[in-house]
Amino acid sequence: MAYVPLADQDSEMEMHHPHSWVTKYVWSQDHKVIAIQYGGLAIAVGVVALVLSLLMRMQLGFPETFDLIDPSSYYQSVTMHGMIMVVYMLTALLLGGFGNYLIPLMCGARDMVFPFLNMLSVWVYALSVLILMSSFFVSGGPTGAGWTLYPPQTSMAGTPGHDMGIVLMLLSLAVFIVAFTMGGLNYVTTILQYRCRGLTMMRLPLTVWGIFIATILGLFAFPALLVSAIMMLFDMLLGTSFFMPAVIESGTPLDHNGGSPILFQHLFWFFGHPEVYIVALPAFGLVSDVLSTHARKNIFGYRMMVWAIIAIGGLSFIVWAHHMYVSGMHPYFGFFFATTTLIIAVPTALKVYNWVLTLWEGDIRLNAPMYFAIGFIFTFIHGGLTGLFLGNVVIDLPLSDTYFVVAHFHMVMGVSPVLVIFAALYHWYPKVTGRMFHEGMAKAHFWCTFLGTYAIYLPMHYLGFLGVPRRYYAMGSTDFIPASAQDLNVVITYAALFVGAAQLLFFINIFWSLRNGEKAGPNPWGSASLEWQTPDTPPAHGNWGDELPTVYRWAYDYSVPGAHEDFIPQNVPESDEPTADEQHFDPDHDESKADA
Amino acid sequence: MSDAAISGSGSTLVDDWSADKQAYHVPWGKAMMWIFLVSDTFIFTCFLTGYLHVRLSTTEPWPLQSEIFALSFGGDPIPLILIAIMTFILITSSGTMALAVNFGYRKDKVKTFWFMVATACLGASFVGMQAFEWSKLILEEGVRPWGNPFGAAQFGSVFFMITGFHGLHVTAGVIYLLTVAFKVKKGHYDKKGYEIVEIAGLYWHFVDLVWVFIFAFFYLL
Ligand code: HEM
Ligand SMILES: [Cu+2]
Q1: How many CB atoms lie within 10 A of CB A526?
Q2: Residue range A93-99: average pLDDT?
Q3: C-alpha closest to that of B179 among B119, B92, B107
Q4: Largest CB tally within 10 Å, which of A221, A230, B7, B38?
Q5: Is residue A78 part of a domain?
Q6: Which tens digit of pLDDT belongs to each residue from A248-298?
Q7: Strands, DSSP E only, in A415-512?
Q8: At a CB cut-off of 8 Å and minimum separation 6, what does A410 contact?
Q9: Cβ of A146 below 6 Å from ligand 1
Q10: Please, what is the average pLDDT of chain A?
Q11: How far apart are CA A78 and CA B177, in angstroms?
Q12: Helix (H) or strand (E) holding A427
């Protein structure tokens, strides 16, 4: 039987047209609605995590002033803050939110291949959030084991939330993984099998490439977390000893024997390190598209960018033990993992060079999304450089578990992806809502966030050098930490409160603009990629009206000499416009600029 | 840059990947099942690696599986006999599944239906024997997830966890097969085509293959 590719099948494919308000906005199978549900929920839990971080900062800045937080609740805040930010906020927002919205639109598809599974995915994600949040209300509160959940201390009496809290956390993670898998299968399959005519893999926008590889990483890395969650649940509920060695707690031996805590660390970081790139790769993709569009230049070295994404994805599976240098390992292992870690820097640096070269001699339009995208280049270089330090065993040993580490990972996987997320939210806001946001407010939001986060994290590097340990509720007085460190802590706390408050600008802006923003038109940034060429703005159910688009070129034909406008959309045939490669693009003889 | 140049040359894999519309000439459901199975492979690999790790880390001696999993029919105990039968059943079920797929593509609804039902029955009997094995270990031998009379406590933990997880896969497979089988019978796929039988088959073969690894690593090693 002849098999017909989806792109060639009749347009009256099985569309699940919504019939009522409930099927349109609640049990919706439309990828765009699902994207907004995913994104909205992820941002909401992100706010919870932000509030927790501000509570911690108040405690650290003014140790004896507030009764809000005691040592237990500090640990619980650290843990919940870290876990929510990494898994429930960034992963869900970048893949569930942006992935769902952009993949079908950028691939010229009507929806994901399996909309029903996609709908299940978002609701199972909601369930995992519910389980996680319920741990705030059980006796003993949420777990305080640190987001790494290392046994055996997770289940020892001294750790807050060692009974109910940790069980709910593990359960919630397992449910999250189920949700992610359902979504992830959809993203990967849609990208592979559901592209429109003419859209080869090498014509996909980098956003799609980033999300594609990140999802594959997720499908291969989350199993390790799932398995460790199951094993730890068994340790806790059934009394097995997978991770529990013989432990004596306050003089009484526990009922465990012969397990291996190091096994947990290996499983956790086999997930944990790729997780960094699950967050980073979509951000790389999004920022590439934002930079290229607003610089009116094709992305520099598109094919290298794709291969760099793939190389980073592959390498990310063989570096995990750089998180375990202090756990003790054979020196040759340390050598191996330090080497692979430093090798990852090569494709990563290549991407950074290419972003900078994309800006080089570009016709840069400093719109708000561009501010955030350029800000990202700064913070990412910064966090990447400190990563090179920590990748080396001898440098990591003294710096491990200090504020230097806190500063490093916040720069590289906290601030950087968040800046990209803001860039992307502003960039695609006109498509999603049909209206422009308030430019001035967005720029103010950028400066407060960008400068504010530097004020928070730069001093933390210095605190780390002094030896201030991470995950400490209060410093107390020590011989090696000067009293002036506390003054820095006060400054950092003010900066953090300021940054936290500045996020209100973002929320006010997006809600205010929903009603009062200017009408955006279909393609306000003059973008060449497919999602801006939809017949309706915001795109209607089914995205493309009667006929699927056909693609004739890549997504980066900007500033093309001789073109009608300074860009050519992906779905404009070759005959209608000259292509960039016919007349070699030379910025020094750029006619479109000469006219202007 | 020129895209024609990209899609023009190279091997078939490169051609597939750089082609437009789709990377593989298969329906999306099959591609999706493959990707899911690769992901699931990682789960089982983590389980088995974890098992090997605790087997090395535990301080007590590892029990002798061949004795624990022996059954005697009147005479001397035969080591691993039940597991051998279970393995044989599961491998047979892969054969009946392959036949079902074959008849599916020939649009022979009746035979497809019956071979799928046969596969499901073999699967169900596998789960039944597993239940028998579990209850024997729990009730007669006193093996528990947290300890057992033969040696390292991790033996029981790993046993129940891994065979349980695999048993759940088989159970889910039986339900999946039966659902598809009855839909086949009703003619649900006359228009859409019978790929779904093959997709269910992929899952089923995978579950069988995983069992071979569990058998080798847990029972023989
Ligand atoms: C204004 C924004 C933020 C502030 C003020 C902030 C502040 C903090 C503070 C005070 C800690 C605890 C440090 C310690 O006691 O060891 C922490 C830990 C952490 N944060 Fe943030 N954070 C912010 C944003 C983020 C973001 C966006 C991420 C996403 C990756 C993130 C991920 C983490 C992680 C993984 C930990 C470690 C948790 C642990 O030690 O178990 N943070 N943060
Ligand atoms: Cu890492």
Answers
A1: 15
A2: 97
A3: B119
A4: A221
A5: yes
A6: 988 889 888 889 999 999 999 999 999 999 999 999 999 999 999 999 999
A7: none
A8: A383, A453, A456, A457, A460
A9: yes
A10: 92
A11: 46
A12: helix A416-433
User: Is any Cβ of chain B less than 8 angstroms from the Cβ of A472?
Assistant: no
ipTM over 0.90: yes
Q: For residue B113, how many C-alpha atoms fall within 13 Å in the half-sphere facing its CB?
A: 11
Q: Which of A312, A384, A395 is nearest to A347 (CA)?
A: A312
Fold designation for B20-220: Four Helix Bundle (Hemerythrin (Met), subunit A) (1.20.120)
At B38-87, the pLDDT tens digits run: 999 999 999 999 999 999 989 899 998 878 888 777 777 888 888 999 99
- What's the pLDDT band for A578 if we cut at 50, 70, 90? low
**Per-residue pLDDT, A587:** 46
Taking only the tens place, the pLDDT of each residue in A429-468 is: 999 999 999 999 999 999 999 999 999 999 999 999 999 9
> pLDDT tens for residues A359-386?
999 999 999 999 999 999 999 999 999 9
Q: Which region among A23-32, A38-47, B90-99 has the lowest average model confidence (pLDDT)? A: A23-32
Tell me the residue type at A171.
L
Average pLDDT over residues B4-22: 63
CA terminus-to-terminus distance, chain B = 55
In terms of average pLDDT, the best of A472-486, B98-112, B182-196 is B98-112
Q: Which ligand is nearest to the CA of A57?
A: 1
The pair of three-digit structure tokens given for residue A364, joined into one six-digit string: 């840069």
Report if residue A560 sits inside a domain: no
Residue A337 maps to which CATH number? 1.20.210.10
Provide the 3-class DSSP secondary structure of residue A544: coil
Rounded CA separation A302/A581 (Å): 14
What six digits make up the tokens of A210?
């980033």
User: What does pTM read for this prediction?
Assistant: 0.93
Q: Is residue A187 part of a domain?
A: yes
User: A525 lies in which domain range?
Assistant: 33-245+257-474+483-543
Query: From the CB of A24, is ligand 1 less than 6 Å away?
Result: no
Burial per residue of B15-44, b for 16 or more beta-carbon CB atoms within 10 angstroms, e otherwise: eebbbbbbbbebbbbbbbbbbbbebbbbbb
Among A183, A174, A25, smallest CA distance to A93 is for A183
Q: Which amino acid is at B129?
A: M
Answer yes or no: is the C-beta of A417 below 6 A from any ligand 1 atom: no
Indicate which of A181, A187, A202, A237 best probes the interface with B, i.e. most B CBs within 10 Å of its own CB.
Answer: A202
Residue of B nearest to A551 (CA): B20
Counting every residue written for chain B, the total comes to: 221
Q: Is A460 on the interface with B (CB under 8 A)?
A: no
Helix %, strand %, coil % of chain B (to 5): 75, 5, 25
Domain count of the fold of chain A: 1
